Description:
Elements: H1 2-9, H2 20-31, H3 36-40, E1 46-50, E2 65-80, E3 83-91, E4 96-101, H4 105-111, E5 117-127, E6 130-140, H5 143-149, E7 151-155, H6 160-164, H7 171-184, H8 196-201, H9 207-215, H10 220-251, H11 262-271, H12 278-290, E8 298-303, H13 309-322, E9 326-330, H14 334-348, E10 355-358, H15 364-376, E11 381-384, E12 398-404, H16 411-418, E13 426-431, H17 437-443, E14 448-452, E15 463-468, H18 472-484, E16 488-492, H19 500-517, E17 525-528, H20 534-545, E18 551-554, E19 567-572, H21 580-587, E20 598-603, H22 608-619, H23 623-634, H24 659-675, H25 685-694, H26 700-704
Parallel strand pairs: 4-6, 8-13, 8-14, 9-11, 9-12, 10-11, 12-13, 15-20, 16-18, 16-19, 17-18, 19-20
Antiparallel strand pairs: 1-7, 2-3, 2-5, 3-4, 5-6
Bound molecules: adenosine-5'-diphosphate and magnesium ion (MG).
Amino acid sequence: MKTKYxxxxxxxxxxxxxxxxxxxxxxNEELRVFTVFxxxxxxxxxxxxxxxxxxIESINYTIEYAQVKGIIxxxxxxxxxxxxxxxxxxxxxxxxxxxxFFNGIKWLSKFLKIGKSYIAYGKVNQFRDTYNIQHPEIDExxxxxxxxxxxxxxxxxxTERLKKSxxxxxxxxxxxxxxxxxxxxxxxxxxxxxxxxxxxxxxLISRQDAYKFIHLPENKEQIQKAQQRLKFEELFFxxxxxxxxxxxxxxxxxxxxxxxxxxxxxxxxxxxxxxxxNAQKRVIKEIRNDTKTGRQMNRLLQGDVxxxxxxxxVFSALFAIDNxxxxxxxxxxxxxxxxxxxxxxxxxQPLPINVKLLTGSTPQKERKIIHEQLTSGELxxxxxxxxxxxxxxQFKKLGLVIxxxxxxxxxxQRAKIQLKGDIPPxxxxxxxxxxxxxxxxxxxxDLDVSVLDELPPNRKPVITAHRYYSKRLxxxxxxxxxxxxxxQAYFVFPLxxxxxxxxxxxxxxxxxxxxxxxxxxxxxxxxxxxxMSNEEKEAAMQAFYSGKAQIMVATTVIEVGVDVPxxxxxxxxxxxxxxxxxLHQLRGRVGRGSEKSYCILLTNNLSExxxxxxxxxxxxxxxxxxxxVDLKLRGPGxxxxxxQSGMLNFKIADLTTDYPILKAAREAAIDLLEKDEKLxxxxxxxxxxxxxxxxxxxxxxxxxx
Length: 705
Ligand code: ADP
Ligand code: MG
């Protein structure tokens, strides 16, 4: 008996009452729904409360949507302007109301019959002192229909193509098919995939009930319980995967950095240009501890812009080099790689360490030398861009990989590094994009996390202001005062893919305009954008680094990591066009020195979302707070660089709101692995079975990570 019901779940939807082969085909194509179980996994996104049948007498302006039942007493057609309308009068024991239709009139005039009983649902409309209902859904009021129609009705997403198909497939069709499934197989079995203990501890309902209630709830409590259960389940298995992955990584062998050696000590005692913050000291210790265990380190270092991650990277590198290993550091852009190279080679200059830069524009001759020195081991510290993980780069003894500004790097790229060599190098991932805890748990669940939660001393907060373009001249005057006092300023223009050409013109125009306001020879302006050659970019950056240029006009190429402490003003043009995390990154370019710094957000009139973004920027400079707002505005899938990770495509869970469930699911997953890692205990068989079944469909990242 049981197997039979199991088979039903995997039956082709063509056999579901009401579907048939033609509709099945379009459902396959549009919704990727093939089997009965696929259809049951197509969850509704909201519910309509149709539990009340309103008496016609009770309808007034306080009721937005009304459901009425009665007999049609009159049907007439009319024209409004040149539009035909059909008005059907419905009468119940308490009164009469007009149902007004603008579409499908031909069909309706056949379907509706005077004297027959109907049930209708639609928006209440006031017309002078009477009410009517405009183009309601209308059905014959048979017992079966009333049972199906009234109550809490699940609403499903459909697609344009479904709606425009000859069957006009809408949410109600989907609900009807699912209803039919449960009518035909009232005892439909859905195998439990959680253990009794987890179910009880988290007060969950059974999987069987959850599937029924999510589609055909009898009350709101059932909806809530079904959602809770299904979200938990989804997050639990995701977390279980991540936790197992994490455990496996913890078990993967790693190089032992035996000693804190001479280089480290000499640098720490003699050449360190500032006192480390306590947070920096703590994180360096964490890295030290990781790298002496004989297990591979996989650590994420989260630190807001300007928190001083670079020096942490340098100390980590010294651990490796002191122990005879090589270090690779990767940045997402050439500018950043160059900057790291400059900063780091300057810091390490007093020490006998060979640091080199490898990017797309490294000349062939230099490239050859680098390759040779890498294989011979002469080269200790290689800094570069993505090019570093190209297969041609061979190290003699790569012990540590540092990835800066992780959000530009995909998980897959990280995985590629892991595959270099028999024993994988230690990995330190640094990110300045503060990630809300919910996301960090999900995306980086396989990494240990360190946080630099303290800024270097003497940092003054950046003063942030929003100005409309009508005040642009005042802003320019202010910038001039600051520049005259010896500061440097950025003007950043938005540049997004689709309208790149227009944006570039905007930037050029802005640049010319600013040149008029800041005339040479008194002032020097440079510009940097993606369409320039690397040499041009480098020359411009160099002029700004050295202080020769006071003003840099740029696109977001300077968004990440650029560090010029004397630059104290950031003017963001058309700031409404930037995302929150981008704005925060941009603002992070100033406030790096000891001077008072300013960030000015220039806009025209603001949309609602843009207003929230701008207000948030003005209100706070806390990166975590900003990322929470960003998450709410954009949803997790849109957060910088997370989309391609493929880990956020949850069917029902919503990371912006389901943090408590995520937390419980994560605890349950970790607890389970502690108790019974191999899931051997009979109590855990349902979980194991479910995992085995789903193994095939697992996203790629888990396999390669
Ligand atoms: P980020 O975390 O954004 O990468 P950086 O490593 O670029 O930050 O550091 C920002 C600036 O702060 C740099 O100019 C760096 O020299 C300086 N800095 C870092 N740590 C300290 C410290 N402990 N005390 C003073 N200045 C520091
Ligand atoms: Mg940095």
